[in-house]
Amino acid sequence: MLALLASAAASPLVAAGAHAGDATLVCPTGKVEVIAHRGFAQMAPENTLAAFSQALDLGYHSLEFDLRLTKDGVPVVLHDATLERTTDGTGAVADLVLADITGLNAAAGRPNWPPQRIPLFEQVVALAKPRGARLYAEIKQPATSAGIAEMVRVVRDAGLEAQTCFCSFQLDYLRTVRGESETVALGLIGSDIGDLPAFAELSGDRTMMLRRRHLLENEGWVETCRAAGTDVSAWLVASQSQVRALARADVYRITCDRPVVAPDRAC
After folding, report:
1. Strands 75-77 and 62-69, how do they pair?
2. What is the CATH number for 79?
3. CB-side exposure of 19: number of CA atoms within 13 Å?
4. Which end is more exposed in the chain, N or C (fewer Cβ atoms within 10 Å of the end residue's Cβ)?
């Protein structure tokens, strides 16, 4: 890992410009915003407090994670609709109340790690707040309007609206978020910009979060998004050569499963 970070630090990067978006979510010139996907999922049990703490300790400041609602409407941090892949439990999160999952081991697939619990959204927010971290919270299906309102309430009560971007593949979810808060940022995830016109109708800070390969294959997308007052980020980015290709395309916000840019080059 140290060799990777040292190599990344030596790699030249085109200077970043300030584009659409809230100042808290835009890097200064010469920096790249490195978003730790599920807390750098290749390095730690994904979507756990241990993963998020490690990413912050390494010097990265942006955390991406997935939000699901339990049957009793509590936002918890888990990617899959069911428990089997990453925990020692079974069943669908949406069919279980919080008490059913609180004792499960969220590091069940990573035997070299001590047991981890499925985090509450509130716990991730509590971890992030004193560290000054930015939060990229992906709302997974199914989600209700009341559940989304509860997610927004969590960051509002913590005073972190300006440091939070709610993301989703579902534009309707983002409309609901915007109805709850004019302050949080919005991220529309996808592989194309077909929904850009509708997304651009939403007020406030917006980012199209696009699959890296498709973004690089369509040179005009970045300019089209920015002309609509919408920034652009890329996922998933796995190498320094991909970082450089995105920099040439004027994209400096990247989501990664492991660090591909050294901390002193990241914001």
Report:
1. antiparallel
2. 3.20.20.190
3. 24
4. N
